[in-house]
Amino acid sequence: MQTKKSFSTELAYLVGIIILAFGSAFMEKADFGMSMVVAPAYLLHLKISEYLPFYTFGMSEYVLQIFVLIALALIMGKFKKGYLFSFLTAVFYGTVLDLSIKLVSYLPLMDMPGRFLYYFIGIGCCAVGISLLFHTYIPPEAYDLFVKELAAKTGKDINKVKTVYDICSCTVGVILSFLFYGFGHFVGVKAGTIFCALINGWLISQCSKFFESRFTFEDKLPWRKFFTE
Questions:
Q1: Is there a contact between 208 and 134 (Cβ–Cβ < 8 Å)?
Q2: Average pLDDT over residues 84-105
Q3: Which of 41, 129, 134, 146 is nearest to 83 (CA)?
């Protein structure tokens, strides 16, 4: 029987954020469509930055997540302290995302096979990052917190709730693309976005099974009570 190794839940948070940010950066580089979760924020970034050049993708991420947290609080019927820390996570993620996009921009532009490589690196990194964030008590981004809280409230499998959320987010992205650029013009939301929406929940579940079969997630710092009360 394989002995499981210990994996810090705090480290899962940090590594998850970084990997997730690089995943989004690689998907932008591939230009097959962004992840459905970040597609609405990406489209808002593209449109608003036409008038406010300083408005980055990362900034758009944490601005939009304010509204996701408000919606979550209304659904849950209360505002938890963890929701505030989720926003701080969004700011941290947005900062790392902008840095990741800058670093990935130095990679060469590639032909179609190379773009597919970037895309699958991106989608894989996003699945790994989200899976790690599901294994930490530190509040994740509003998107993932919404899924965790809703799954806990309804008693549904978190990966199934994630798939439904992804499809809804993808739909919002398509609507924004049409509103901003007209029918027939898909910007930010493309075939890769649809594919990601359909497969992402399954990918995350496979990553979680992999981690859970090899690691025991354990707290190394006495912070859980502070974040979960």
A1: yes
A2: 91
A3: 146
